Amino acid sequence: MPCTMNAGKPVEYEDVLLAIDALSQGPRRPHLQRMARLLELLGHPQREMPLFHVAGTNGKGSTATFLAFALTENGYRTFLFTSPHLVAVEERFQRDGVPMERDTFLTLFSEILRLGEKVADEEGEMPTVFELFTALFYRWAREERADVLVLETGLGGRLDPTTAETLPLVSLLTSVSLDHTDRLGPTREAIAWEKAHIAKEGRPLVAAVDQEVEPVVREVASRRGASFHPLTEEARFETFLRPKSPLPVTHLRYEGPSWSFRDLPLSLPGFHQGRNAALALLALEKAQDRLPLDPDASARGITRAWLPCRLESMALPEGRVLLLDGAHNEESASSLAAFLRLLPFRRRHVLLGAVAGKDLSRLVPLLTEGAAGAVLTRAPHPKGLSPEALAPYVPPGIPIHLEAEPGPALQKGLSLLGPGELLLIAGSFYLCGALRPLLRAKCR
User: Fold this and answer.
1) Residues 95 and 237 occupy one common structural domain
2) pLDDT band of 6, cuts 50, 70, 90
3) How far apart are CA 273 and CA 62, in angstroms?
4) Which tens digits make up the pLDDT trace of 266-279?
5) Structural domain containing residue 318
């Protein structure tokens, strides 16, 4: 169904994608004025609905999803705003786990784009795509009478559009590691300072950061008038695995200020997901004074929470397994490597793609650790690196295969896969998102 953009011209989904691509070109001044004006033109919908706000280098998408599933299980109409999308843009906007319908996206994007053009006339530059998407999410959630919102930051926190003029029930900070250093700063402390600015006066900030950057986060929270609640000080949790094919199941034991759960089997695999789930539970506990919540319903939501391309496994005949994970920086690759060491597969092969701006000297060796072979390709993104750019970082002794495009790279990876072996696809959510529909078709 067509929508209208630019003086009533009918457009289709492909036209909107072209408009998004055009809007993504060129730098913008980093500030929140454009976002504030968009919210003003919309009548400040973000003030009408309680919300949770999640930031962090890694784990924020999973943590936001844990929150959203738990809130839905409590009977709330829960709207989730997350990024990036894997296949279709409308995946970024979800209601109770279901993506926005495409027709709705087309209609709302047309409306928000017109407001963006008004802001451009006033401010001298067009809002960013992420600013338009944030406004679109609020507009949609208000129209659909959302009970509660969960928002994931796009980048950083201090100048992220999701931070503009909000007062969250609880703010959450997952982890801090080196990523996007060109925009957030060259050190973990500098990045923590940026992300900690999601803290808001009079509201709790719960955080799963390590001891090295915790003082920075604590200081920012204090200066902004937020109470600070480190996960390791206010809750006890343990993550353990139980055998199952093709992957072991991750279980969480949690003891918080008022809630306690002996054994929660998680649908998202990996030790790091235990920490993300524990952080979500602590945030829910801190929200109880403003939002009635049932512990058992919340726990059910935590166990049911799931996301694609987070240690997502697919089975093939003869015990062969495909594993997709969007690990794209040192911290996430380290978590993935630790999990892979526990798996009993006879041999492991890797299909790898990455985008510019990553520390390849750390990322590639972690993702190819112990591999019998590495297929390198270009991640389908404007900043996708050529396989030739990745090759020098593969450890010596691992056979390398170069494929310019993801499709042929997948075929090569599958051709290497013998009985009882694993093919890991990692390095970029863009690569996983492009290959996932092809893999699902093969695994039906």
Assistant:
1) yes
2) low
3) 7
4) 999 999 999 999 99
5) 312-442
> Using one digit for the tens of pLDDT, what is the confidence trace for 381-426?
888 999 999 999 999 999 999 999 999 999 999 999 999 999 999 9
Same domain, 97 and 152: yes
> Contacts for 411-416 with beta carbons within 8 Å, 24 or more apart?
412/375, 413/349, 413/351, 413/375, 414/442, 416/349, 416/372, 416/373, 416/375
Burial of 44 (0-12, 13-18, 19+ CB in 10 A): middle
Judge contact between 327 and 367, C-beta under 8 A.
yes
User: Is 21 strand, coil or helix?
Assistant: helix
CA separation for the pair 179, 314 (Å, rounded)? 29
Cα gap 171→332, rounded to integer Å:
22
Strands 260-265 and 249-255: antiparallel
User: Count of domains in the chain?
Assistant: 2
The domain that holds 242 is classified in CATH as 3.40.1190.10
Distance between CA 40 and CA 119 in Å, rounded?
A: 10
DSSP 305-371: ---TTSSEEEE-GGG-EEEE----SHHHHHHHHHHHTT---S-EEEEE--BTTS-HHHHHHHHHTT-
Run of H or E residues at 16: helix 13-23
Distances (CA, A) of 278 to 16, 106, 233, 394: 39, 37, 12, 35
Token code pair at residue 251:
């279980």
Q: What is the mean pLDDT of residues 149-159?
A: 92
Maximum Cα interatomic distance, the chain, rounded to a whole number of Å: 62
Pairwise CA distance, residues 442 & 65, whole Å:
27
